[in-house]
Amino acid sequence: MAEYTTIWEMKKEDLAMKEKLSKLAILDTLLAKKEPLSEAEEVVKNKLLAAYF
User: pLDDT averaged over consecutive 10-residue blocks of the chain (53 residues)?
Assistant: First the structure.
């Protein structure tokens, strides 16, 4: 049973890391945009910056 718990913990860590990388990719896209951001994009950018920096 401990083996399955360990595998599940590793899977949860992997999913959390993938989610973080996905959000950082979105942030990178928003920061790289040359045209002005929409209000929604600005909100997302600010939330991601607050969460990770």
Answer: 88 97 98 97 98 92
Residues near 20 by beta carbon (within 8 Å), at least 6 away in sequence: 52
Three-state DSSP class for 52? Answer: helix
DSSP code at position 38: P
Predicted structure pTM score: 0.80
Q: Are 44 and 30 in contact, with CB atoms under 8 Å apart?
A: yes
Report the alpha-carbon distance of residue 14 to residue 12 in Å, rounded.
5
Q: What share of the chain is helix, strand, coil (3-state, %, to 5)?
A: 85, 0, 15
